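Form 7-S
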Amino acid sequence: MTRVLYQAAAKNDLIEVWLQIANDSIERADEYISKLQEICELIAVQPAMGVARPDIADGVRSFPVDHYTIFYEQHRRTISVLRVWHAARGPLTLSVDS
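Output:
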């Protein structure tokens, strides 16, 4: 079984998503974060379902979810979630290694 590991930047992204939605509804914020985490679990089972993103870095893939994009890498039996990026932020141009 492949496990999901969230990098610090992705954890911060999820907190920001939760805080934004929680302004309207804590219940909806919890549900949406659960949805994103469930999709990350699905990606762990089928990592090739995302799109290869050599424009960002070798080995990085992306998968869209509503207005967000999950950026991740596969490392043997681990999926490393790098970022959960909102489309309004523009294209991801930051180094995913930091």
